[in-house]
Structure formats: structure tokens, C-alpha cells
Predict the structure of Dihydroxyacetone kinase subunit DhaL.
Amino acid sequence: DQETQTEAVRTAVEAIADRLADEKDHLTDLDSAIGDADHGANMDRGFRTALERVEETDGDPADLVKAAGVALVSEVGGASGPLYGGSLMKASQELEDGITADTTVAFAERYLETVEERGKASVGDKTMVDALTPAVHTYRKSIEVDDREPIDALGKAVDAARRGVEFTTPIRAKKGRASYLGWRSVGHQDPGATSTLYLLEELLDVATE
Ligand code: ADP
Ligand code: MG
Ligand code: MG
């Protein structure tokens, strides 16, 4: 029922906030190589605030996801706040009828579309889009073509995101701060693709429990 789903969203945001706190230094290291060394602090602060908001928000799952997005936009400047937060706000509309296989596919696609629209990045630009795109496409195909359960589909999506993150290392950045480095960005893993993978891994973890 709705209360169970609402609680599941709180649990997921908590798991993500904990994971990002654990990975704060690692994400900072990745961003110090090709950016301005704040991605760990941004994500940690953003999701800590998002967790506070979803804990004090009453409503359906869509309301909670929206509240998390608003928190990220207001708490995190830079590239990642509006991309993560604005996309969560937009995609939350797809969850208004609750959390099902179909609504989660719509949510995932809307999230990816919004990131692409706002960031103007495509696959191969060395951004979060490189983790997100294969994950979302795999999730959709696993459900709609291969007829998998959402949890199996999410497992496949996480594997796809992991390969997407690996793919960011050998390529040159064409969007975001890392693009200022040109060829010197080659050989470094993208921080935003990495944090996107952590989010998906935690969603899978929570869904599996
Ligand atoms: P900032 O670069 O403003 O300091 P963060 O360090 O928090 O912001 O986030 C950097 C990450 O944001 C990058 O690793 C990349 O994945 C992502 N990013 C940057 N610009 C874009 C963009 N135009 N489209 C998609 N993702 C982007
Ligand atoms: Mg940064
Ligand atoms: Mg910054």
C-alpha cells in the first residue's frame, strides 16, 4: 500500500545518504583530479538534507521524491545539484500513481531525459549521462522486452551503470568542469557517473531487502 511505498522511499534515501557519506572522500578525490574537489561534499550535504526533508514530509512516494529533489537543488550549487535535484523533481511526477514496474520505467526515462535536457550532455561526454543512459535503457528493456521482475531489471541496470562508469575513464571530457582540461581529463573516472552508480547500487540493495 501507499504507506509501505512511502516508507520504502525514506529507507532508500537513508541508504543513499549513508553511502554517500561513506564515499565522500573517494568522490572528492575523483573530483580533485578533473574538477574542483567538491563532489563528495556536495553529494554528502545534499543527500543529508534530502533525508531530513523526506523524514519530515508526509505524503505519497511522489511527494517524497520531489521533496528530496527540492532539497538537492537548494542545498547543492554547481553542476550536480540542479542535475540531480531538478531531474528528481521532474521525474517524481511519474510516481503519482505509486511505484510499479511501469511507473519506475517512466520515472527512470524522465529522469534521464531531464538530465540530458538540462546538461546538454550525451553519451561519451564523460558525465553522469554515461552511467545513467545504459542503466535506464537496460532497465526498460529488461522489463518490457525480457519480461523480468523489476528487481532483476534493476540488477541488470546496475551492471550496465558500472560498465558506463568504467567507460568514462579512457575518454576525454566534453561537458562540465572536466572539459576545461581537454586531453588531460583522459585516464580519470568521472565523479558524477560514480555517484550515480552508488545511488543505483543502494536502490538495488534496498529493493533486495
Ligand atoms: P561542479 O562541477 O559544478 O563542481 P560537482 O563536482 O558536484 O559540480 O559535479 C560534477 C559532475 O557533474 C561531473 O563529474 C559530471 O558527471 C556532472 N556534470 C557536469 N556537467 C554536466 C553536464 N553538462 N551534463 C551532465 N552531467 C554533468
Ligand atoms: Mg566539483
Ligand atoms: Mg563545484
